[in-house]
Model the fold of this input.
Amino acid sequence: MQKFFQWRRSIHRSLPLNPRLFTHMPSSSFPSISRFLSHSPPAEEEEAYDPPFSPTRTETPKTKHKPKIISKKKDRPPKVTNEINSGTTTTTDFPAKSELPFDFMYSYSEISPGVDPIGFREPKRFSPFGPGRLDRKWTGTSAPAPQKPDLEKLAEERVRVQGDPLSEEEIAELVEKYRHSNCSRQINLGKGGVTHNTLEDIHNHWKKAEAVRIKCLGVPTLDMDNICFHLEDKSGGKIIYRQINIVLIYRGRNYDPKKREQIPVMLWKPLSPIYPKLVKNVADGLTFEQTKEKRNIGLKSPPLMKLTRNGVYVNVVDKVRTAFETEDIVRLDCTHVGASDCKRIGVKLRDLVPCIPILFKDEQIVLWKGVKIVGDDNDAAFEILIL
Done:
C-alpha cells in the first residue's frame, strides 16, 4: 500500500540559505522555508517512518477539585420596616392603631347590610390584616371601630380640609387635566367595588396630585350612587366630576398628606362568608308548578339585553324597570360574564329594581317582578311588591 506524506529528516546536513537571494521576502519567513527544504524523501536502503497524521495525546488523570465549603450566613438582625429620608431608621410598633371612624371591611360598596351570613369559610381569628398587626378584632366580615364616631367633629374636620369651594374655572381646569384616559393618576374599580386598600391608593395619589381619576367596571356600575357615596364618606374627598363610569375625586385645599390618618393595609383577601340561598325552590306567592312554568317561559323568551364581562351596566336597572311595566318575566343574557358575577348582578337587581330572581342557569338570569297586592291606606290605593 502506497504511503502518503512520507517525511523524514535528512541525514545530510542542509546547506545554509543565502539571505541575499530572498531580499524581497520578510525575514520571518526564512525559518519556514529552511524547515521545508531540509526535508527530503527517504533513501531506499533506509526504512520509511510513517508517523500518524496527528500524534496521540497521553491522557493525564484529571485533578479533582475539592468542593468549596460555603459557610452558612450568620443570623441577620430583623429587617427595618420604615426608612426616613434623613438616613435614620425606625421600626413600626404593632399592633397598629387607627382612629378612623368606620368599620374596616374588604368591600364597602358590595355588601348587603340587611343580610347576615349564616356561616363562615374560615375561622374568625384569621384577620386579613395579619396576626397581631391591628388593634381591632376581626368578626369574619369586618373589624369594628372601638368607639362610636363623633359626627359633628367629623363634619367640621372635613369642612376644614376642603376649604373654600372651588370656582367653575378651577373645576374645569382639574377636569381637563385628569379626565382623559391617558391620565397617570387613575384607579380601576372591579367587581370588588370600593375596597379597603382602595382608600390607601387614593391617599397615595393625593400626595402629588390634587385629584384622582377612578374608572369603574363590572357589577359596581349598577349602582354608581353607592360608589360615589362610599368614596366621599371613607376618603374624605369630594367628587367634582362624574360621567357614566368615570369619577374624579378632589382632595381639598387644606389637605396635608403628613397629617392624614394612617390606613392599615389588608395583606390578603378574606374568604367570603356563606349567605342564605338566593333562589328558592318555590318563589314567594307561587306554587311549585307555577314557579317551574315561569322559569321555562323565561328561558324561551328573547333576552332583554346582553351583558359583557367587566362591562358598564349603568342603564341595566332602568331598562329592567321599564320592561316590567309590560312583562312579568325578564331574561338577561350574561354569556361569558361568569357564574359569580351573575349572582352579584342578581342580588343588585333584587334590591334596586326591586324584583325576584327565580333562575340562574347557563349564565342566564331570569327575573320575575313579583305579586302585586292592592290595599287602602288613608283612602289611597297603593301597591306592594312581595319579596
Residues 7-15, 71-75, 77-91, 373-387 have pLDDT under 50 and may be disordered. The helical segments are 30-37, 151-162, 168-178, 196-206, 224-235, 288-300, 316-323, 339-352. The first helix runs from residue 30 to 37. The chain is about 25% helix and 15% strand.
